[in-house]
Specification:
The structure is a homodimer. Chain A is α/β, with parallel strands linked by helices. The first copy, chain A, has 2 domains: 136 residues, Alpha-Beta Complex (Aspartate Aminotransferase, domain 1), CATH 3.90.1150; 230 residues, 3-Layer(aba) Sandwich (Aspartate Aminotransferase, domain 2), CATH 3.40.640. Helix content of chain A is 41%, strand content 12%. The first copy, chain A, contains 14 helices and 12 strands. Chain A has a 7-stranded mixed β-sheet with strand order 2-8-7-6-5-3-4, sandwiched between helices. In chain A, strands 9-12-11 form a 3-stranded antiparallel β-sheet. A two-stranded parallel ribbon of chain A has the order 1-10. In chain A, helix 5 packs across helix 9, helix 11 runs parallel beside helix 14 and helix 12 crosses helix 14. At the A-B interface, helix 1, helix 3, helix 5, helix 9 and helix 10 of A face helix 1, helix 3, helix 5, helix 9 and helix 10 of B.
């Protein structure tokens, strides 16, 4: 019988790029041994969590066995945790964020889905610069939303094309969704580009009027702490009253599996309290109920810590050297931990195949809405990056032959 | 501006019964002190987690700070945890469940939502006996599903009305959703009733044919371990190949806030692998990504343990005495930790109000789809139950006056 809906069946077929890479990788590792394969396909932060994590978890163990020690917390999060995160965001975002502006969520993914559930009606649109994290389409699509990717300026470091974004806005557009530092390009959006996007949002909202449905500026920023060469990631909340930050501690604290993130709504947003209440409701009714309590407490206790991010910078420099030596054309990422180089010859699938022949795993750019490039994730040891050098050279040579 | 969709706005207004109770409770506690209020409104398991939880968490602390110690796991769960849960379910369900039949989820709520996303198309129906856990409506409603409650037989201990359920099935019905032991009634569905429901499912599926979309028998069983007076909860997986179990450790291990549950698809289901893959996909794309890894490991390490469930039985007996002494008409619950007594005079709101005047908090039955009753949760200390006795008597006296 037909157990699954047609839509989900299509989704299962459509998600096959990353799945294919994963399965191909498993197969290659079985054949050649895990050590022989240079796997740049996954973004699972492998740098250990901060050392303090151990003491925090141990201390939590005694509290956990008290009555309600691991019980439900309010749907928006543990009050003390919300306050701690609000104070942290107030500093980071240079905005008077308070606990009432924050909802703790099951990762940034849970934050996005809960947020979209609250604001997206069937047929509504969400605009994002491409290439983009491909799950965005599902996140709003669950509720009838439609993702409209707008190509970034590949020749200018994958800056967002603000004019094209503005031109893509229709009365049905509910959000501009940006992700800076960007997965997959590593681009950090400049303060000027962010200001221009915020101006577009303000202009649209002024035209829609007090009775209209606003356009939100959503900033998905799990990689905020990953900025190199002295780059800074400009705060978003001060730019427009309709700004919303969605973040997580998955990458900064290397606790991606424990699923801790948050939504923070601008304290300046008119009727922002309704939106926060709505996200608290959808966070509950979507089955998240509350962000995992152990992870919430861990994150709050580790706000002054990060995993050793210098490791990522060293890998970045090494990967840049490997690509340069192989004659691959790429933009040096200033943030996150990905490279998005051009496929020699222009065919991302051909490049991915040629790399696979060398036991090097990459994901084709079409998996991120931009063919002709590939994504490499540097969440692997420097030894593996170094070891991939010859494979890159041979793969490039083959494609240029 | 109108930040939130009309549907979610309606949902916010609709969820106001439990919210009102919660807010009223907060207000009463502020006015009279938390000690003075007997709060039977919430189902947050307050019996401490098993003592072993402490040692397990401490041991985990050393592992957590290794690379990937808290990293993403496969979307369906940590392989060793899936295997442990499968072995546990194989014993409990008397069915050859293997890891491939199981997806670890963010609580039973996350299990239900991920499952509905995989099988419910807009306009599809889900039938459940009422009274019922009111969030079921949202869980399938997010994707255009419609919940169709069918009243249980209140005069016969809230047994499901199998004939009425069968009569309610249409070509659009995708699932019969049962919850035994039941929230809010405490009813444990008999093996015979479960067999009759399974026969209905088999008959419908035979008629729909190989190319049709099946009717599933969903068993939501977070309270399976809560059975008293020697009662047993019959296993569901052997009853029909289209059986699916959705469970959690929130109540049994008192770790509701850590959000650990699972979906287990019958090993006999034709093309069950597609369904498991679909739920794995929706679990990811709905933003859960994977069930929290600390909680997964905790649950797997504590499968032979439970919180002290005898406490709940003692409370049950005490609450029964309190209600009997007050002249309240009720069915003795054989499972879970709720009472669903009749409102004296028949008006649940009037009874809830009269109880509030006595600083006793209950939830009106209409919040569970059945007016004329109230729900009392025994996840509170015996002292509080004892202390409520006079309040119940006075409230009943007032309504009978």
């Amino acid at each position: 019988m037909q157990t699954v809906t047609d839509q989900i069946k299509a989704s299962m077929a459509g998600s096959s790029w990353i799945r294919k890479m994963f399965e191909k990788g498993m197969e290659l590792k079985r054949q050649h041994g895990a050590e022989a394969v240079c796997d740049f396909s996954l973004g699972n932060p492998d740098v250990p969590p901060p050392a303090k994590t151990k003491a925090v978890l141990e201390a939590m163990a005694s509290e956990a066995v008290k009555p309600l020690g691991l019980g439900y917390c309010p749907n928006a999060g543990i009050p003390a945790v919300r306050e701690a995160i609000a104070a942290y965001l107030a500093r980071q975002q240079q905005s008077p964020v308070s606990a009432g502006n924050v909802v703790m969520t099951v990762g940034a993914a849970g934050a996005l889905v809960s947020f979209f559930r609250a604001v997206v009606a069937p047929g509504d649109e969400v605009i994002c610069p491409s290439p983009y994290f491909v799950e965005y389409g599902s996140y709003c699509g669950h509720f009838g939303g439609v993702l409209k990717p707008v190509p970034s300026i590949a020749d200018d470091g994958f800056r967002p094309d603000v004019a094209a974004i503005e031109a893509a806005i229709t009365p049905k557009t509910r959000a501009l969704l940006v992700n800076s530092p960007n997965n997959p390009t590593g681009c950090i959006y400049s303060e000027e580009d962010m200001r221009r996007l915020a101006s577009v949002v303000d202009k649209v909202n002024a035209a829609r009027g007090d009775e209209g449905r606003p356009l939100f500026l959503l900033s998905d920023e799990p990689y905020r702490a990953f900025a190199y060469d002295g780059a800074t990631v400009p705060p978003v909340l001060p730019l427009t009253p309709y700004a919303v930050v969605l973040g997580s501690f998955s990458k900064t604290l290397s606790l991606a599996g424990e699923r801790i993130g948050y939504v923070a709504v601008s304290p300046q947003m008119p009727d922002g309290a309704t939106l926060v209440n709505a996200v608290t409701l959808t966070n509950r009714t979507l089955g998240f109920v509350n962000a995992p309590v152990i992870g919430q407490r861990l994150a709050a206790a580790l706000l002054d810590e990060t995993a050793d991010l210098d490791v990522y910078d060293r890998r970045r420099k090494l990967m840049a050297k490997v690509l340069t030596d192989a004659g691959v054309d790429f933009t040096m990422p200033r943030g996150a931990f990905y490279f998005f180089p051009k496929a020699p010859g222009g065919d991302d699938l051909a490049f991915v195949d040629a790399l696979q022949d060398e036991l090097v795993l990459a994901v084709p750019g079409r998996g991120f809405g931009m063919a002709g490039f590939v994504r490499l994730s540097c969440s692997v040891d420097e030894k593996i990056i170094a070891r991939s050098a010859d494979g890159f050279k041979r793969a490039v040579a083959k494609l240029k032959a």
